[in-house]
Amino acid sequence: MSSVEVAVRGGGVIGLSVALAAARAGFSVSVFDLGSPHAGSRVAGGMLAPLTEAWPGEEAVVAQGVEALALWPSFADSIGVPLFTAGTLAVGTQPGDLADLRPAGELLTSREIRALEPSLGPAVRGGVYAPGDLAVDNRVLLSALWKACLDAGVVSSVDGRVTVIAAGAWSGALHPALRSIRPVKGEILRLTHRPGALPPPRHTIRALVSGRPVYLVPRDDGLVVGATQYEAGFDTDVSVAGVRDLLRDAETVLPGIAEYALTEAAVGFRAGSPDNVPIVRWLEPDVIAATGHHRNGLLLAPHTARLVVELLQGGSS
Q: Cα 99 to chain center, whole Å?
């Protein structure tokens, strides 16, 4: 085991993935986390979709995401977490929506897209099928990562010769070089399937409804619907407008959800960097940043963990 003691500040998916990778690489590792119910890892859709989730101007993040996606099957298998492997349907309701989807792949007609997912509503005019996309239940993932960390000898402490700051939206308060990290508020809904309702879709569905983005990610018992995006600081209120807009657009895409139960409405905070590119580097001797992942924290977790271990081992990630 390495004599270097590593203290990870943050127990979300990024922090726990870093801790686990470092422990498996032979480092002595501890994790400290305040356990906010609004942490981005807890309030997340769980999509692992670098191309269909890409936004214009984020080419650097897309490249990292493609690399990270290739790591996910072995990463998930190593901690015993199942993945949803049916892929993503990126769909649109207007001609402009379909034009925006073209960079993600070959456009399918409304008939072709419904052959893949018959429960889509009549407003859907077509879309793109990304069979290689994955998804994961974020809360199952968090539990599995905590267990894997404990099994690897990770302990709870704030002390270490090297500190890794992986506190998501709260990272800005932990080092002057991270003051530009900001919280980006997002609201998501959890819908639970009820007897007599149509079953959840088999695929993850990302939709543009007259230009407004909405996603529906299947879970064993229902769906996660998200997500709004606001520059509102650490505002923890779920707004009526946010819930209304998500349900309206989600029902347009998948009318059968009207028979589901609304069982949770929650706010989470993404960690936004100035250019929305993650910050993974030395800040000073013995302090590493692993934060600023914005919408891509779950997707980039194994990739970021690998980079941090390379830094700890003297590499130049």
A: 25
Three-state secondary structure call for residue 235: coil
Give the residue ranges of the chain where pLDDT is below 50: none
Q: What is the 3-state secondary structure (H, E, C) of 201-228?
A: CCCEEEEEECCEEEEEEEECCEEEEECC
Measured over all CA atoms, what is the biggest interatomic distance in the chain, rounded to whole angstroms?
A: 61
| Cβ atoms within 10 Å of 211's Cβ, excluding its own | 11
Question: Residue 166: is the preceding peptide bond cis (ω within 30°)?
Answer: no
- Count the neighbouring beta carbons within 10 Å of the beta carbon of residue 116: 17
Residues linked to residue 155 through DSSP beta bridges, in sequence order: 30
- What's the rounded Cα separation, in Å, for the pair 37 and 31? 17
User: CB burial class (10 A; 0-12, 13-18, 19+) of residue 118?
Assistant: exposed
Give the integer Cα–Cα distance in Å for 66 and 93.
27
- Count of alpha carbons within 13 Å of 103, Cβ hemisphere only? 12
The 10s digit of each residue's pLDDT in 5-17 is 999 999 999 999 9
C-alpha span between 288 and 264 (Å, rounded): 35
Contact 6/164 with Cβ under 8 angstroms? yes
String of DSSP letters for 119-186: T--TT--EEEEETT-EE--HHHHHHHHHHHHHHTT-EE-S--SEEEE--GGGGGGT-GGGTT-EEEEE
pLDDT at 238: 97
Which letter does DSSP use for residue 85 in this model? -
The predicted pLDDT at position 260 comes to 98
Beta strands 222-226 and 212-219: pairing type?
antiparallel
Q: In this structure, are residues 99 and 150 in contact, taking their beta carbons and an 8 Å threshold? A: no
Q: Name the DSSP letter for residue 42.
A: T
Phi, psi of 135 (to 5 degrees): -150, 160
